[in-house]
């Protein structure tokens, strides 16, 4: 339970952090809230020789309106997200999900950027960023690039981040007025990661689905966008038959591992239940 030796660096600016990571090489890792990385280091599943703490970089802590989108700085904590009136008004699904992450102690330290950059399929924010059509700004020694959340996750703990790159901000387009959203998370106890979870953003027009996105957490090696399930609902009313069709399509792409949270068959079953519940609740909230 004691991490290996490492050197600690705390740059004050983003260019300094990028330079440090480039100079220190592959044995250096960014440190955000530390609530995934430090436990991994204690288990010796991660053994970085250098930690580059992003906590001193003020520009990474801002939530800004940018036209019809919000830009959330990577070092905004889950607690700060919950305190943001702008997020509460425009992106209530992020509030709902953040309230279900761990406990207040973890949320005071854990950051949104760390949650999405980590690549753990159990993290709650990635599937929601995919559902919202968000993109990530990645900055490194070769400049900046924007990667869609839907293209970012390649395998468990394997993402589009190149060595030396820092995820600096998350760009979230605002869903249309009148949309409804919900996040349903089944967990064994308060503070646990999801056994299975589903997030839905839906828009109705005269009771008929005009837009829908469904995301799945901890139901495969990566967060999933259940595109076929969402497509099957467009142009239909949300009733038992259309929900059952969507659940069937969503279950078809789930590929969870059996573990202490249950066998894969059980997770696929409850994953479908989460999709049905999230669809109903999101539709109830859509005006
Ligand atoms: P860190 O732990 O500092 O970093 C995580 C990884 O991302 C590291 O590899 C780091 O190098 C990299 N990284 C961090 N920031 C950046 C960046 N800006 N650019 C590039 N790479 C970066 N999470 C959930 O989603 N749901 C849960 O239910 C949940 N339950 C938890 C319960 C407990 C008891 C604990 C301790 C944690 C739990 N977490 C849960 C994890 C928590 O949300 C973490 O805070 C989060 O996964 C990582 O964010 P962090 O800021 O702590 O990142």
Describe the protein in words:
The chain is an alpha+beta fold and 287 residues long. The protein is built from twelve helices and 14 strands. The strands form four sheets. The chain has a five-stranded antiparallel β-sheet. A four-stranded antiparallel β-sheet has the order 11-12-13-14. Strands 1-3-2 form a three-stranded parallel β-sheet, with helices on one face. Residues 29-37, 39, 54, 74, 101-102, 106, 110-111, 113-115, 117-118, 123-124, 161, 166-167, 191, 193 line the site of flavin-adenine dinucleotide (FAD).
Q: Give the domain tally.
A: 3
CATH fold description of the largest domain: Uridine Diphospho-n-acetylenolpyruvylglucosamine Reductase, domain 3
Largest sheet: 5 strands, antiparallel
Low-confidence stretches: none
How many beta-strand runs? 14
Report the CATH architecture of the largest domain: 2-Layer Sandwich
Q: What strand line-up does the widest sheet have?
A: 4-5-10-6-7
Q: Cα distance, first to last residue?
A: 51 Å
Q: Give helix and strand order, one letter per element, not per position.
A: EHEHEEEHHHHHHEEHEEEEEEEHHH
Shape: globular
> Roughly what is the average pLDDT, rounded to an integer?
97
What's the level 1 CATH class of the largest domain?
Alpha Beta
Gyration radius from CA atoms, angstroms: 19 Å
Bound small-molecule species: flavin-adenine dinucleotide
Question: Helix proportion of residues, in percent?
Answer: 25-40%
The count of helical stretches stands at 12
